[in-house]
């Protein structure tokens, strides 16, 4: 049993301590939002090549039917989350990737599904078969990155270490926390399938110290599993690593630093060092694909913020418009002053409720005026707070100065390309300089030079 107060906790250099604001939703059981009458499903919901439609207006589709895919390897197919009729295919706003083609489906309410191939022992399948199942199910990184998972599992060279990311360091978001409590064994099954595919010798499950209930649930399940099965069946110990709740602890490179004390050098990937990082939500999706034969058609999303009557965690089918989902949450207590998809630090502000949920949506935050703070930018006082908190050792104030005074030729010495856009520097800035905006500009300039 853990004594959280006295144990030493891993962390990385820099970072900021944020007000968590997770109390709105963390103790509420996850509910499913019923599928709306009309689904607007973006054809591409991943990082990589865009998908082409496999259906046309007038076609009937079944729940789980593949309706978009690409021949390019760096892609993930999309599947219909309902049964019904395709009304149209048209460009539609996407909360993450601007406007993209989307399939509009009239839901017949029957949930008539394609045949789902259930498997009792998928761990007995070959590595390549498992990777194919994960690819065909359209699984992508569900921590928000949406990189196709099968690509990360098919890397050349030996992978020695698997890190499962249960940090969930952004304020307000609790979907991963709830998943670890409610789908503990399913996540564990997904972790063991990953271990089987990658043939790793170390598995770490990283959870921040503000998620005690998730730590205890996962720890109990791991102990029971080890008691029940022999190591030869692939059930090696999963080591839980309790991390300091600090932002941006959930970044891949920050996790690696905190757990293994290793730096991922600029231009390199964790896989170059024999490490794969996967989110707990992705492990659950892998479980569903391999055991239940279910493609990725829905996910757990945190709907939260002071404006909602009933904030909570909800299973939402992809293509559900925010306005339909809000109705299920009892509507608004007051009109939101700001809507953010994702966490408040790295999320994307939205201008409408006519936005469909997609694979990369971890949460939607509806903030009231009282929850927002507005600041005037003032002159940099050279306090170096931004330098102290930067988790990748950049000098944000210098990058800002070079951009402000158009000294573009100095930028390459300041490496703005290494910035992970976490926003810790802007948050800590004494003069409230919008540093991330300046750094994004610097990145664009640098990219154009290449
Ligand atoms: S410079 Fe980039 S990586 Fe460093 S704190 Fe600022 S946003 Fe984060
Ligand atoms: S934190 Fe803000 S005020 Fe301080 S050095 Fe950085 S940019 Fe300047």
Written overview of the protein:
- The chain is α/β, with parallel strands linked by helices and 450 residues long.
- It folds into 3 domains: 31-116 and 296-371, Roll (Ubiquitin-like (UB roll)); 122-292, NADH-ubiquinone oxidoreductase 51kDa subunit (Rossmann fold, 3-Layer(aba) Sandwich), CATH 3.40.50.11540; 385-449, no CATH class.
- 26% of the residues lie in helices and 19% in strands.
- It has helices at 127-136, 149-152, 175-182, 184-198, 212-228, 252-260, 280-292, 322-328, 385-389, 396-404, 424-428, 435-449, and strands spanning 31-32, 38-42, 52-53, 60-61, 66-69, 78-79, 84-94, 98-107, 161-166, 202-208, 239-243, 275-279, 298-304, 312-317, 338-341, 348-350, 363-367.
- The strands form 4 sheets. Strands 1-14-13-17-15-16 form a 6-stranded mixed beta sheet, covered by helices on one side. A 4-stranded antiparallel beta sheet has the order 2-8-7-4, with no helix packed on it.
- Strand 5 and strand 6 (78-79) form a beta hairpin.
- Helix 3 runs parallel beside helix 5, helix 4 (184-198) crosses helix 7 (280-292) and helix 10 packs across helix 12.
- The radius of gyration is 22 Å and the shape is globular.
- It starts with 30 loop residues before the first strand and ends with a helix.
- The mean pLDDT is 94.
- It binds iron/sulfur cluster (SF4) (2 copies).
- One iron/sulfur cluster binds at residues 389-392, 394, 396, 419-425, 435-436, 439.
- One iron/sulfur cluster is lined by residues 389-392, 394, 396, 419-425, 435-436, 439.
